[in-house]
Amino acid sequence: MTTGSPAKLIIRFMIPMFLGNLFQQFYNVVDSIVAGQFLGVQALAAIGSTGSLMFFVIGWLNGLTSGFAIMVAQCFGAKKEDRMRHYVAMSVYLSVAFALVMTIGLTLANEPILRLMNYSEEIMPEVKAYMGIIYAGLLVTVAYDALSAFLRALGDSRSPLYFLMISAGINVFLDIVFIVVMGMGVEGCAYATVIAQAISAFCCFIYIVKKYPILHLRKEDFRYSWNSVKKLLGLGIPMALQFSITAIGTIIVQGAVNVYGETYMAGFSAAGKLQNILGTVFVAFGATVATYVGQNRGAGRIDRVREGVRCTQYMILAWSVIAMILMFFFGKYMTCIFVNSSETDVLAVSVEYFHTVFWCYPFLGSIFLYRNTLQGMGYGLVPMMGGIFELAARTIIVLLVAGHTSFRGVCLADPAAWIAALIPLVPYYIYIMRKQKQKI
């Protein structure tokens, strides 16, 4: 990505990233659709409301491995292949260690976490069972995240997409078999998700073994180096914290929504799923920019970094307008994917959410652009600060309005968070670009 038109490179790389992220979201989305259509509103409320908690757990691992891959991308751009393989090996150590610790810790803390989120006794058993199975499968989740991140660091965003498409299809099939045919309930959704993720991870591994000799690790690559680990953690942990801090804010909001009852939980969950699908474009642009900036930073092409960020900003603004129109005018009909059209109260909740937040999508998209640009440049602290600003804004809104105002007041937490997150990101990006220009 160090030569050629930045706009064309970013679009070509982004489209497979977008489709890959879209199929990755299918796991929880399909679970919610099958649960809502075949098991009812309560099952949709149980599974759908775990989205923020899933984002916290999966987001940490995804952010961690994406941060590790930045070092891989920089070494690849600088043509330091031995060093690159060493970072891959150290990333494997760290990814496995984090996954095991999280599996044990979250399994033990499963019920206490759910009680803090104000789940009622009626749906507590279903939510607890679903999340328990997801926690047990975190090792296969991190395996796919790490392997696909390494491929993207080398500029290959298509192969992970193909494997996700296969596993997403398997997930749909297993959801129907486990729930409709075998009558397993919400546990069937969780088993389907873990099995599908394991298949995508296995496909990634086999593909790397056969097609990418540059990633074939040798014994000396696994020689432990504290300095290398420190560099990886310096990028991985802030990126993971950025995801997790954002997720903690959404968990706080979800806890506030849970107080309003199952109808609001179901409507809010369905709206969130639809918004996440449209927001996948923003996520794909962010991940693309991280790789693009990482490679060009490694090659010393700061001029291309600036040009790539500028054209990406225009594309994000264009998609924001499309998303605003879709959510404002068609959000109600899209919610029918999750629930029957006769559930008018649930549909009304989703419409109220969309009409409250739609105007703020340009700010949401810009977060991914500037956050991932700074991370691709090797700066992890300020992007993490953006997450802290986001968390603080959500928390303040929830404390002020939850239980004191209507549901619309809780919905305002998202726009407030998106605007607050940009407060440290944009000025720092401008500062870094001016500093780099002075060096040149």
TrEMBL record:
Organism domain of life: Bacteria
Main location group: membrane
Keyword terms of this UniProt record: Cell membrane, Membrane, Transmembrane, Transmembrane helix, Transport
Pfam family, one: MatE
Signal peptide span: none
NCBIfam families in UniProt: matE
The name this protein goes by in its record: MATE family efflux transporter
Source organism of this protein record: Jingyaoa shaoxingensis
